[in-house]
Specification:
9-stranded mixed beta sheet; 7 helices; 49% helix; alpha+beta
């Protein structure tokens, strides 16, 4: 019962952190304690192995999910349920892997701490990855009768503005800039900027006719769209082609 209590609490805490449910840890501790008691009773009173497995994997997991995170709608419930189930399977797999490394079964608490550390590291990594992906937006850049579908990263640290017209300056991958602005030398201008290691830089800037930023079902129009041309190699190989200026979405709403 104590072992189940420990593992259920680790699983609930991981789901709570990753999905940002903001439930108090003492509540999760209580729910995991009740779940461990329920698991013990099922093992004692249910003789049929198949029925016992169904109750443990689906019945008890569902009750634990509702008690821990509540009920808002079906989507909310299934998000919690599936992730909790996956985390429990993950923890079980880690425990088996630790046993295969030669850690005795009797050393449960050492293995539980190791599983919790691995789950914590994985949760932090996935949360950082999700936060990064939430800042990636699809954009359409229109210029010279052509349209380029690109990925853009919203960067709160990019505060560059064009001093000539006050518009926000986005940063564009160098190789794409050659395609979008083949005639750039005829109207390119230089904009001063500051960055780490470069306090007196000059950035080549061009204007595209229009850019659309897609925010879910909403579409923002930026007209004209100002692009600074990144140094070659700076954005190549990244998950995005454009760095959006921090205030561009507020300015264009």
């Amino acid at each position: 019962m104590l072992q189940n209590w420990c593992m259920d609490y680790i699983a609930l805490a991981g789901v709570n952190c990753f999905l940002r449910r903001k439930q108090k840890l003492r509540k999760l501790l209580l729910v995991s304690a009740l779940a461990s008691i329920g698991s013990l009773l099922i093992h004692i009173y249910i003789a049929d192995a198949g029925f016992r497995t169904i109750l443990l994997h689906f019945g008890l997991n569902s009750i634990m999910t509702i008690f821990a995170f509540g009920w808002k709608d079906k989507k909310f419930f299934w998000e919690n349920w599936f992730l909790l189930y996956l985390v429990v399977l993950f923890l079980g797999g880690v425990m088996q892997w630790e046993t295969s490394l030669g850690i005795p079964v009797s050393f449960f608490w050492i293995k539980a701490i190791g599983a919790a550390v691995i789950l914590s590291w994985l949760t932090i990594y996935l949360m950082q990855k999700r936060e990064f992906m939430e800042k990636i937006f699809r954009v359409d850049v229109m210029h010279g009768g052509k349209v380029w579908e690109l990925n853009a990263y919203w960067d709160s640290g990019n505060l560059l503005q064009d001093p000539y017209n006050g518009r926000p300056v986005n940063i564009l991958q160098a190789k794409l800039a050659e395609q979008i602005f083949p005639e750039k030398n005829s109207y390119m201008r230089l904009v001063p900027y500051c960055s780490l290691g470069n306090t007196n830089g000059l950035l080549s800037v061009c204007d595209a006719e229009k850019m659309y930023i897609y925010l879910g079902e909403q579409r923002l129009e930026v007209k004209p769209a100002v692009f600074g041309i990144a140094e070659e190699g700076l954005l190549e190989g990244k998950e995005y082609d454009v760095i959006l200026q921090a205030s561009i979405m507020e300015k264009e709403r």
